[in-house]
Amino acid sequence: MANDDTSGKDLTGVTPSGTAHGEAPAGTAVVARDAFENPGFPPHRPRVTDIDPKAERRAERWVYTLFYLSIVGSIFAIVAYMVFPIDAENIASVRRNNLFIGLGLALALLAIGIGAVHWGKALMSDHEGIDERHPVPGTPETRARAVEIFEQANTESGFGRRALIRNSLIGALIAFPLPAVVLFRGLGPQDVDPVTELSHTMWKKGTRLAIDPTGNPIKAADVTLGSAFHVIPEGLQDLEHGLLEAKAKAVVLLMRLKPEDLNELPERKGWSYDGIVAYSKICTHVGCPVALYEQQTHHLLCPCHQSQFDVANHCEVIFGPAARPLPQLPITVDAEGYLVAQSDFHEPVGPSFWERH
Amino acid sequence: MPENRTPTPPKARSRKPRKTGRRHPLASVALIAIGLLFTGGAYAAFSTSTASAATDATSQQTIDEGRKLFIANCATCHGMQAQGADAGPSLIGVGAASVDFQVGTGRMPMAAQGPQALQKPVQFSDEDVAALAAYIGSLAPGPAIPEAHEIDGEGDASAGAELFRINCAMCHNVAGAGGALTEGKFAPSLAETSSKHIYEAMVTGPQNMPVFNNLNITPEGKRDIITYLKYLQTHPSPGGYELGNFGPVSEGLFLWIFGIGSIVALTVWITAKSN
Q1: Domains in chain A, ordered, with CATH?
Q2: According to Swiss-Prot or TrEMBL, what is its membrane topology (chain A) (predicted)?
């Protein structure tokens, strides 16, 4: 360290240059003597390993013991891999496998690290040194030479002169990422307007409400006071493709309150049936499923960001970051007593998107 | 029974000399045997009759016992006829299952009004809980205490896991570790809950838990859910220490303290001067 190319010098014994209080200018009556003095570096203190050869040997033993331990750890990891294989039938074998391989690898790597640091701290030279920074700009000759190289390259390649080649290359580079844009668009819904897709769900007039996951339709009489049903549209299970997308938009939570507890908006008077209400389960904040229903307070809590909706008051937001109430699904009963939807949701479910704020 | 053995022989002996004096050498032995049989049989009949009285939840005697317990311990809040009052709801029609859950887990009688009734050491003996349940169950039809075959935990654990994920996991955590609700309420951990109390909570909807009646989750589905929860209770996590199964909260705290702590300790050690 003390002999590298930047003439870093050994600092031990360097005297601090105290220049804070020089000669007082003429005419000054009082000279301040208490200006701050640069204390410089503390004096170099030799380590135990510098003085005591026994300590030095001990440190050396420590270092090579640690390196040998690392070898032991590596071999242990290999042996553990063979002795504790993962058995697909026994899930506890995963734990043993991970634990012992991990212990071996941790020992192998930690022992190398600790050994190297101990070597550096206890045995290598510990004299403080100082390296001056390089000046940031190069010498004028170096810079002139660099400009010269660029100009020569330009002349020889004709980059500046052959404009057609240059412009077509720039064009090619711009065009290259375009396939990625098209490919990513291919991941989205095809042949349909995404805004329409986001605005409509599987629910339509007459669709029966069914229990998730069995798909059995629900009778109004099944929904006793205080119940919460996790609902999917009937026929969802029969979808050939797009089942998860359809489910993610259409899931509904069905609850029965005492009719006198329910405070309905005038325009939604006919949307519930005898105290049974159905609300979208998709949070209007970022789309987590809101299903933590408290049957006494009639509050719905979103577990992701603690938005709270008051089911008794048309699911208005009473706490948290959600911007809109949960959309309500208008329901009624059919001739056989099963709960059915009157229509789709009257607004898009879930979080905001560009065309909806 | 041993205490019955001593009085019988003197009785037999004292009677015999008064008669003709003739007696068969085995007569006293036969009498002792008859006496033993009689007392033993009477004792057995008596003990079975008390046992059936204890288990018969609908007998009038049990209901009367439950009514006395109710008036002494519960009527202050729930009213003399369990009709409800300002401090407590009506219990008419809540069913025996509700009482068995609330009293059997120590939630009732409540220690103090709060966001929700907390679980605490059970305040009544099993017989008293059964008597209270019988009394409330006799007031009006309601969910009954489940039969043994409904809660035996021998169902389909993976079907139960799916039902649990859809219906329960949002509050109780997918591993049944419990979770926070609003304004100080919380869904409790299910790690120690008995099969019977899990079933009763589903059918009665204690406090802010919604009701999951048999038309929503079938008795078979409830049995599967119990099977899943029992599987979780008895099988260790393959990932090692669970740290309460709370996910990012406890795991993050562990890393924050021990992970960052050990990095800081190593950094201090690396930069400290060697002595």
Answers
A1: 1-36 (no CATH), 48-186 (no CATH), 197-356 (2.102.10.10)
A2: Multi-pass membrane protein
Pairing of strands A9-10, A129-130: antiparallel
Q: Which domains does chain B have, with CATH numbers?
A: 40-142 (1.10.760.10), 146-259 (1.10.760)
What are the structure tokens assigned to A179, written together? 């396939």
pLDDT digits (tens, 9 = 90+) for B195-254: 999 999 999 999 899 999 998 999 999 999 999 999 988 887 777 778 888 878 888 999
Q: What is the pLDDT of residues B262-274, one digit of tens each?
A: 999 999 999 988 7
Contacts of B183 in chain A (CB under 8 A): 297
Residue B170 buriedness (CB in 10 A; 0-12 / 13-18 / 19+): buried
Query: What percent of chain B is modeled with pLDDT above 90?
Result: 40
Indicate the annotated binding residues of B.
Answer: 74, 77-78, 168, 171-172
| A291–B170 CB contact, under 8 Å | yes
Prediction ipTM score: 0.70
* Distance (Å) from the alpha carbon of B239 to chain A's nearest alpha carbon: 6
Amino acid at A76: F
- Residue among B166, B183, B212 whose CB faces A213 most closely: B166
Q: Indicate the pTM of the whole model.
A: 0.69
Helix axes B8-18, B27-55, angle to 10 degrees: 140
The phi, psi pair for B114, rounded to 5°, reads -160, -170
Chain B contacts in chain A segment 194-233 (CB below 8 A):
211-213, 218-219, 222-230
Tell me how close the Cα of A292 comes to any Cα of chain B, in angstroms: 6
